[in-house]
Amino acid sequence: MNKIKLFQDKKVRSIWNEEEQKWYFSVVDVIGILTESPNPRKYWSVVKLRLKKEDSELTTICSQLKMEAKDGKYYMTDVSDVEGLFRIIQSIPSPKAEPFKRWLAKVGYERLEEIENPELAAKRMKEIYRQKGYSEEWIEKRMRGIAVRDELADEWNKRGVKENLEYSILTAEISKATFGMTPSEYRDYKKLTKTKQNLRDHMTDLELIFTMLGEASTTEIAKNKDAKGFSENKIVATKGGKIAGDARKNLENESGKKIVTDENYIEVPEKVKRLKGRK
């Protein structure tokens, strides 16, 4: 699970290791925050050499995992857990060292809390959406959509569908049957040019609802048909999406209004647009 965490508005790439039950953080990102160096990667190379000369067990401090870079691609990156980062922080003179240590401890504690009580994770996510300018009505639909998507992903996992590429292909099948566009085409239609811009965060209420219907239908069909593997689930994905697509077309015919819209919330927050629409 890759995440972007913020320390004083600075991004820190991180990965939660479910098996070890702990976070791994990008060392270069941490170095950049602590030193404010224009080239944190080079700074880290110097620190690594010093640690090796001091006979530090660098392999116990750092490992490498794939993380997303600014270009949207994934590269092997030096990462460390909280304990290893404390050792690295000690070797770097910085007035931000103590605040950063406290932040690390808080991040780890909050994640463990969320594992014990998943409702906390949902509450924190809702608060993030509120801060971004989303209405309560939209947030409830978005949260429900996340739950529906998680249920579908669990079902695919049980049925032998491989994550990443196969998930993406099946998701594209559902989207195309539901909206007449793949997610990438949908992103282009909504003018979402940045990798970090989540398509579903720029959907209207009805777009979210039909997305849910397509994915919930796919889950139900997969269960009832006992679809196995990628090929069978691809057929199911098209059928599930078609159910939502047919419902969308029926509503469009009755209402005289298109469901699919090029609207996004990049410049004007969803809550503001909702209020304007009521006037």
Notes on the protein architecture:
This protein has 279 residues and is α+β, with helices and mostly antiparallel strands. The chain folds into two domains: 2-116; 119-278, no CATH class. Helices cover 62% and strands 11% of the residues. It contains twelve helices and five strands. Helix 4 packs antiparallel against helix 5 and helix 7 (136-158) runs parallel beside helix 10. The longest helix is centred in the last third of the chain and has 27 residues, at 229-255. The model has no long low-confidence stretch (mean pLDDT 85).
Task: Give the arrangement of secondary structure elements.
Blueprint: E1 2-7, E2 10-17, E3 22-26, H1 27-35, H2 40-53, H3 58-61, E4 63-68, E5 74-80, H4 82-90, H5 97-116, H6 118-131, H7 136-158, H8 165-179, H9 183-189, H10 205-225, H11 229-255, H12 270-278
Antiparallel strand pairs: 1-2, 2-3, 3-5, 4-5
Helix pairs in contact: 1-2, 4-5, 5-6, 6-7, 7-10, 8-10, 8-11, 10-11
Quickly list its features:
279 residues, alpha+beta, 2 domains, five-stranded antiparallel sheet, 12 helices, 5 strands, elongated
